[in-house]
Amino acid sequence: VVEEQLMISRAVAGDVAAQRALYDQHVDRVFRLAFRLAGDDDLARDFTQETFVRAFDRLATFRSESTLSTWLHAIGVSVALNGLRKVKRHRSREAPLDEALTVGVSTRHAEPDLKERLAHAIAALPEGYRAVFLMHEVEGYTHEEIGAALGVQSGTSKAQLFRARAKLREALADFAGEWVS
Amino acid sequence: MTDARDEFDETIRRAAAEYHRPPDIVPREDMWAAIQARRSAPIALVPDDVPPLRATVEAVPRPRRGGLPARTWWGVAAAASVLLGAGIGIGRWTSRGWTSAPGAAPATAVVERGGRETSPRETSPRETSPRGDVSGAGAPMVAAVEPETPARQPHGIARAATRREAPAPRAGGTRDVDANVTYTIATLRHLTEVEALLVSFRSAAADSAVNARIATWARDLVTNTRLLLDSPAAADPRRRRLLEDLEMVLVQLVQLDGGAPARAGAVAEREMIDRSLGRGQLLTRLRSAIPAGS
User: Fold this and answer.
1) What angle do CA B221, B262, B250 make, to 5 degrees?
2) A14 touches chain B (CB under 8 A)
3) Which residues from chain A sit within 8 angstroms of residue B34, using beta carbons?
4) pLDDT (tens digit, 9 = 90+) per residue, B202-218?
5) Using one digit for the tens of pLDDT, what is the confidence trace for B4-45?
């Protein structure tokens, strides 16, 4: 922590090596999350770059009330969600009817089909639910981290995850018998 | 029942790991280079009271629940393009009218680059820049044009000169900076809008209606790009190259003919445009040219 504080001070003072060190420390996780949310390499790069540009510009205002990682992720999630809204990435991905009719025909093909249907179902989740689901279930963030990144209480994060799971179960109900039994 | 549900949740969680799976290798160096480029982008010419450039994009209504429909967004974008084009055109026209009064033998006060003001008698009309290029290196800059015989001038120019008689003539250097700032702002606004178009193009579905809108939007921007290329805004070689590359891509976008949805070439054209964007790193260069945080 002390080392990170020192690094932040140097970065604020304009030390590019310190900025690079902070970047190297956090970029992978920020990029992964951006990619999970965007599903597109170019957009994920853009969001990651924007996150760090903003972070370095505002680093002097960082007060160490949270960890740098949490602060960066709060910026990253905000950038990604705003960016996604801006470029209308939330396009509808509802499964066509003929696709739905093929569900459960063969157990051997169930897994790839489930993944495809799941992708549609996740994309169709409300923005907040989707972010919480991906951060917690896929990227392993804690509810406290998610709450800090999204600017909500950790209880809200838990509630949204609960609802996201319920929606996914509902959307994939026709798989349940096949996989659970 | 709970066990079964937990098991199904676990199945979903495992399958979700494949959702938007990031690449194993994070493009650290590329992103770092882009970040450095954006952070070192020049911002000195943009005055403090200019609203953030990205506000242009933000100000355009975004599609949201209960918000304005997507059609409005395209309409506003097209209107903004036309407005920007008209602004640049008027700026260039008045700039020309300001400095060139054919046959009027105007008396001019000339300020040399060093700021020394010379007598009007020292300068002949031929010494003024023929294109009204206020930033022309080495050329004397016209500080004021006061026609001795306004009746000999075309009406438009006479009016333009009359309009400018009211304010006291300013030093040529000040106007030079003002003009540069104006062109810089116009260019940056234009680049912001082109960025919005390119991002929309890359993210939008490839259907004929979208293609038609993009082509319409691009058509307006091509005109503005050309106007900027012919203006002092293109004096900076790096900016000029960027504008030229953008013009080429915009022309390609104009070719996206929305009227022929089944055209076999439409998909190939989109791929070609994508390749052009990638090859020239246009989006990265575009963003580098737009000041960070704007």
Assistant:
1) 15
2) no
3) 45, 49
4) 777 667 777 777 888 88
5) 777 888 888 888 888 999 999 999 999 999 999 988 875 544
Report d(CA B101, CA B294) in Å as an integer.
39
In angstroms, the CA A45 to CA A162 distance is: 30
Angle between helix A154-171 and helix A143-150 axes, rounded to 10 deg: 100
**CA-based nearest residue to A85, from B67, B72, B154:** B67
E strand or H helix at A96, and its extent? none
* Cα distance between residue A70 and residue A37, in whole Å: 17
| Helical packing angle, A154-171 and A173-180, nearest 10° | 80
Report CB contact under 8 Å: A180, B19.
Answer: no
B114-143 pLDDT, tens digit each: 444 444 443 343 443 434 443 433 333 333
Position B65 confidence tier, pLDDT thresholds 50, 70, 90? very low
CB-CB contact of B197 with B253 (8 Å):
yes
Chain B contact for A62 (CB, 8 A cutoff): no
A11 inside 8 A of chain B by CB: no
B271: how many CB neighbours lie within 10 A of its CB?
A: 11
- CB-based contact, A131 to chain B, within 8 Å: no
Query: Which residue of chain B has the CA closest to A176?
Result: B8
CB contact under 8 A, A35 and B30: no
Buried b (16+ CB within 10 A) or exposed e, A63-96: eeebebbbbbbbbbbbbbbebbebbbbbeeeeee
Which residues of chain A neighbour B74 with C-beta distances below 8 Å?
A: none
Torsion angle of the four alpha carbons B86, B89, B91, B96, in this order, in degrees rounded to the nearest 10:
-160
- Which chain A residue's Cα is nearest to B291? A53
Closest CB to A88: pick one of B17, B20, B63. Answer: B63
Higher pLDDT, A91 or A108: A91
